[in-house]
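Fig. S4 source data, part A: sequence.
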Amino acid sequence: MDVLKHKCFLEELLFWTIKYEFPQKMVTFLLNMLPDQDYKVAFTKTFVQHYAFIMKTLKKSHESDTMSNRIVHISVQLFSNEELARQVTEECQLLDIMVTVLLYMMESCLIKSELQDEENSLHVVVNCGEALLKNNTYWPLVSDFINILSHQSVAKKFLEDHGLLVTWMNFVSFFQGMNLNKRELNEHVEFESQTYYAAFAAELEACAQPMWGLLSHCKVRETQEYTRNVVRYCLEALQDWFDAINFVDEPAPNQVTFHLPLHRYFAMFLSKAVKCQELDLDTILPDQEMLMKLMIHPLQIQASLSEIHSNMWVRNGLQIKGQAMTYVQSHFCNSMIDPDIYLLQVCASRLDPDYFISSVFERFKVVDLLTMASQHQNTVLDSEHERSMLEGALTFLVLLLSLRLHLGMTDDEILRAEMVAQLCMNDRTHSSLLDLIPENPNPKSGIIPGSLSFESVLSAVADFKAPVFEPGGSMQQGMYTPKAEVWDKEFDPVMVILRTVYRRDVQSAMDRYTAFLKQSGKFPGNPWPPYKKRTPLHPSYKGLVKLLHCKTLHIVLFTLLYKILMDHQNLSEHVLCMVLYLIELGLENSPERESDEEVESTGGPERCHDSWFPGSNLVSNMRHFINYVRVRVPETAPEVKKEPPASTSSDGLASSQSSRRKSLQRENSGTAQVFSLVAERRKKFQEIINRNTSEANQVVRPKASMKWSAPGATPQLTTAILEVKESMLSLLIKLHHKLSGKQNSYYPPWLDDVDVLIHPEIPRYSHGDGMTAVERILLKAALQSRPNKRIIEEICRKVTPPVPPKKISSAEKKTLDKEERRQKARERQQKLLAEFASRQKSFMETAMDVESPDADIAMEIATSEQHVSEAIYDCVICGQSGPSTEERPTGLVVLLQASSVLGQCRNSTEPKKLPTTEEEQIYPWDTCAALHDVRLTTLQRYFKDSSCLQAVSIGWEGGVYVQTCGHTLHIDCHKSYMESLRNDQVLQGFSVDKGEFTCPLCRQFANSVLPCYPGNNVERSLWQSPSNKCMQDLVQEVEDLQEQLGTFPVSISSETNLSKEMESVMKDIKSTTQKKYTDYSKSPGSPDNDFLFMYSVARTNLELELVHRGGNLCSGGASTAGKRSCLNQLFHVLAMHMRLYSIDSAYNPWRKLTQTMQDKNSELISEELPEVPVLYRDVSSLLLIQILTMPQPLRKEHFTCIVKVLFTLLYTQALVALSVKCSAEDRMAWKQSGALKKNTCNGEKSWEVLLGHVVSELSMGKIYEEQETDELTVVNPDSVECYLQQFCLPFLRITSLLQHHLFGGDLPSCQEDEEFTVLASCLGLLPSFQSSDEFTSASCLDWPVPAFDMISQWCSELASFADRHPDQVKALLVQEPKWDLPHLLQLPENYNTIFQYYHRKTCTVCTKVPKDPAVCLVCGTFVCLKGLCCKQQSYCECVLHSQNCGAGTGIFLLINASVIIIIRGHRFCLWGSVYLDAHGEEDRDLRRGKPLYICKERYKVLEQQWVSHTFDHINKRWGPHYNGL
């Protein structure tokens, strides 16, 4: 690093810019002059000259992140230009400077490596705990280096410069073996270090990415030289590394590092050389000794992965699992595990197969398990880990022999295999697939997911499942799912195992495969992983097949088959599956077909060490019989025989071979046993490395094999001779019997059907379980040689049940019993779970129908059962059933919420759009709430306050909606339940102090309990008995009943528990909504207010139920959710409270409706304001007032009487409204025609007569004098009839619902055009139902007193009002109400429309552009989310708006995130997005920047949840917002 000498101002400027850590203004200033070419060159050279200084400043900087970004901001503009980069490389030694600077930077944080030889190691590695690595401080320099290596000309220079390569390999070796893990054997680590993040990031960024950059220039034959250079210096660096760590032949136990960048450089360049450059592999491979060393550490990693998954590293904490996962994770795998496995494949193809196989089993610590004895001791592994380590070893061999990622697959095949593997684990979204398919980490390398090949492969292997919305509220995104033929032909369990980060994904893939086979009818049972044909091996790697044809592997396979057949412990189905897979691989890849006559393979050096098998070909070894095996067993084992049999020769079938076999009595006692493998392996190793024996013996670790087991530690080993008399074929056939549970289950298929041998590709063998696999293997074995075929036939002829071991020792008996017990326990558990699941399912079916409010569900509320003497309720807490009593009342679990949904109805069917331009603004004048508000204020101006408050209903905004899940509980049980919730610290998203809880049975959110009135159902049937009293008597009875106020069956004076509860629930109802929605009177706190509020609660609930039914009652049926309605209980609570307020009998509206008053003008004299004229009163409100002030329970006849009387008023209102609407001439005509018919018999039931009368009465006042505004030209009688029916329908609907809830009985269903007649007859207004052609609405009238007197009286009130305020008369008339159902605003098709308009829009309150803009989907108001600018009294704007607009419920679209949040009271939740991209995925926070389009189904669901008030039940993730939104 030279001293900087400045010669010009530019250098001085840059120096101070660096010194002050790149101030933004300086950076901008320096970059702005770059268009000048001379300046650009000069500046680049100066920048390079200061490179080392930049590095020093960066290391010292406290703000290294900001500084890094600014450095890269400059350098990316300088180095991305190939011409400039080349020039600087040539003139200023840019490459040298960069590599040296990186080297210096890393040298500051080196520590001694503890790998292998802790004391004498000379190797140094980076310390991953240093800030430099932890904070990725090095990345700007590395990213510059990667950037310039992307230029062909610069990379060429680098690859040709030997000095640079040496320095670079030196740099890479700093990372070789970093972050070493040592297995904790005693106690758990105190502190879990998280340094592995830094280590993986460093290897990926500092080593792998430059490597991929260099590889991208080694694509053609002409670049062979570069590869040779890299490989040469890589090997030198590796040799230095082995020397530095004092490595001989055994890795140190209990250590693993996942970081071997030198190995990976070597592997990747080898792969490139063969794949693209047609280099001969053997010319660049090192000698055998080096290959043996090279394979050790990658193999150690594979074994450690297995140990980690077997929980042997559990004391190292979670971080070791994190490392194992990161190593195979999609962003790392092709720079880590893939090169490692490829390197092992290369070593395996060039080394002695017996040596390689035995190394694998030794690394996995399972050599001792591979004995034919039923008992063994393992000196290096606890018995509970043996099974999973054996599975790991076999799985690794299968991976090693099956994977062809670097051994011959093309890029497209690889992409397809990767995609199939990911899709088989789970359905995937498009973006997660892009993320999961390992891409070449260097972006300029060419194959990038998202390219054409990605999309075409995706459409070839997967089907798109459009986004759906599942009931229960979880929103599905658009998913890709594998096509059926992919499951059928391409599902590759090996690839899935290689790519799974979580082991459960393998299981998930198998479950999905099983489901596919069941569904398509290909295989009903539990299938085994299918065997998949592999891409042919590239000729350079043909040696890999030798592994499948070596005696060591055959001995292992034979031993394992034998052990599985004999039920030795520690063997699982997975082991058998892998064993069969390896046999099948061997049969598929047999070196050459053997000739038909049996080959006498005598002599030859091959047979020097082993009396197991004659040759190394699996095909012939499969039929070779093994008679006796000498085993080493503990003295306690059952196999110990006192003396060996006289002769160990075989008899029968295998006699042809027996002559060739030496007797087993050799001086080496372990002859036919696998542990000799380890010794063999040692011998070979020493032969290869010509060192003297004394030294070699010191190296051998006494751990490795039982021969050196520590004396006295375990029971003494002794030799026993085991009678086997089996060959692999016979073992397979017996296994088939064992798997099928039947004797002689295997029958060679070719005996029946010779075609099997001619066309072996039989689909019936491609999917199935273990038996299918055995059959497939036997068929392949028979196909490959005639002797095999013959022997299979012979075995099948004389097969006998498998011989169990002679006697079972007590220890084994215990383990067998244990297994049996476990099996039984498992079965019991399965049974219980199944039973539980079915119960749960039936419960879900009854209880959880939140989604569809129109399904009726039978619940325990017995209100509709008329034959029971008393309603019986089940308490879901204590489980007891019984009636609700005054002392111990039962209550319904209810959720009370304030709602402004009704207020959002508009009187136009034209949907309101969300404004996306300045012109489209929404004004809330035409909403239902606004119009009702205006009406009440106007009435209050001209009339007496107390009477105004009974002439209308409130609750269109901020009305209280009550809903229940239908479960009941004792109120005292509920109190103790709440107490326990209060003491429970772990609360999920609701506040117990506000009375919130979840229903103990169905977990539905609730916040109050509505007491059930002790009802006697016997009375109920009496109340319903039809009466024959005349109208006059009934009217009188109703009046008398209203007089006896205060007499309530539950006398209020005696405070019972029930009345207390009713009062408390009333308080809850009141406090549910804000004060402004309950106080409408001029004198605050007047009782009239409470009176109005209470009957309006009933009105709100009836109106909302009507909305849920779609605005009419045509569908009929039971109430919204069957027994889930709580209106009956609610009426009782309201009635009890309303009867506390007396209505002064003089003002009782009932009188005005049923009697003609004498003193008409007396009230005009009094000073105070007059009462509201009857014709201005809202009939539905009058109905509720009448019903709720009557003593409960009400008789049906009285109910009908009230309805009839009110209907007369309603009809008159309709006539008045009609008369105002039509023109003066029409009025004259009606008046005359009415007068003519007046005296006919049915005059009171003809609308013409009545209309004429109304017109004549009203003409006396000044009512018709105003200018005609909206002329309704009513000419034909039909349209009049239609108008009158439409006018009356809303009242009839509300009344029918009320009747249904009070008295039970279903609602009839009907067509829309006959709704009026059906409801009228249902309510008893139609005396006898006539045929509809002559039906008129007037025939429903039943006047308590002569109609004309009544009408005259009512009209006179209007006339007298018109004299004083002629301008207001018409405005206050009750108009024909035509409300459309409530809807959210209509959203535009494309999200960009919303985004462009709102994300720069200024807030109307604070006139700033909000950081988090949001818009209300109910009214279109633009608000600042979380903005402190618009905060009022500690409430942020969204929360405030949710209270004003939705009485506590707000639905906001977050503009910058495309998601919708719901605010409900003090809680909020993220609902999800209604805008999805072309692949049906959300893009939360707009991170991916894809165009988004409206998903109409989702928006419909959102609207449905808003209207039905089910946000609380369907969305699960609620949290408190502390008014901060």
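Fig. S4 source data, part B ends here. The CA atoms of residues 103 and 171 lie 6 Å apart.
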